[in-house]
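Standup notes
- HV: blocked on the assembly model, inputs below
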Amino acid sequence: MKKKGLLLVISGPSGVGKGTICKEYLRTHDDCTLSVSATTRSPREGEIDGVNYFFLSHEEFRKRIDADGFLEHAVFCENYYGTPKDAVMEMIESGKDVILEIEVQGALQVRSHYPEAVFIFVLPPALCDLEERLRGRGTETEDVILSRLERAKAEFKYIEKYNYVLINDTVEEATNRLDAIVKAEHCLLCRNYKYIEKEFLNDK
Amino acid sequence: MKKKGLLLVISGPSGVGKGTICKEYLRTHDDCTLSVSATTRSPREGEIDGVNYFFLSHEEFRKRIDADGFLEHAVFCENYYGTPKDAVMEMIESGKDVILEIEVQGALQVRSHYPEAVFIFVLPPALCDLEERLRGRGTETEDVILSRLERAKAEFKYIEKYNYVLINDTVEEATNRLDAIVKAEHCLLCRNYKYIEKEFLNDK
């Protein structure tokens, strides 16, 4: 019996290192792929349709919103961004796990469309580590750093909507824990019930 | 902040290999220990009180039942057997994970006393594998094998009370998956909420 993949929704404050964890996880897991977003903004040089983004016209994007074609979507700088439902579901049905790296508002939308997704919030070991990391980049002004910290604190309020917290102490440890979460979720009774019913609960 | 350990309740039909998986897991995980049962039967040669069993008089055992001192208990061949609540809780509070290898009726009792335990049902890849394994031992009569298979089928009916299924394809794979389940459970939001609340949700 073909097993469905998982939708892994990964959020966390700017600077926490969730991109690095996802990249490292994807590098070592062929059975997992990154979700490709759709957008109405124009492709930048070198960007390929279907790889970096699905590039859609405003009209097409709105048509798909009306047809409930997105797991989540938002407007940013007058352009639409969203996660096309069909593309993700196809991957999942084929048995691949899909990672969706997304902010909290988007995650909440995904949750209402696909509650069987796995919601993971990446955290620093402590709040002061986040500030340290943001400052450590050395690329941001004090104002930007403070506004990111404020935004992080606002995002933390949504943490109870998530299933797991992934403490990013080291990339290696955090990636290992992400691997454990994925393996464990695949062992959940509810994700195996069809097979179990057929094989063990049928009175043969 | 000291983290609590997990109570891992592991069931599965006779012959499925759950003992081997637990032994292998314990061998490689110092942070996990096997629960020690209490019993009213007499110690056999070489058995040590507090190591193999806690040996109790019938009177003492019944007193502890009345005081709600067991996570589960049962009578077998006119002797009581049970899992002392205090000993398990002490380990868990100290941060150690505790494995309780137990049949389904006992697991149901544990569930009502301590619902935050992790319930894991060990299964063979397919039903025919179980029969093969029971026959492969070469030590049981046909009658015993058939009655064990019937008992297994009766136990499967309780599988929906468990959180996870652990398919024992190979001991190594199954032990790895058990490791993943334990790691993932330690990442669950609900098991880390106190720390998160203190560190990230306090408006400092």
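- HV (later): unblocked. Residues 11 and 102 of chain B are 5 Å apart (CA to CA). The mean pLDDT of chain B is 94.
- Next: hand off to the docking folks.
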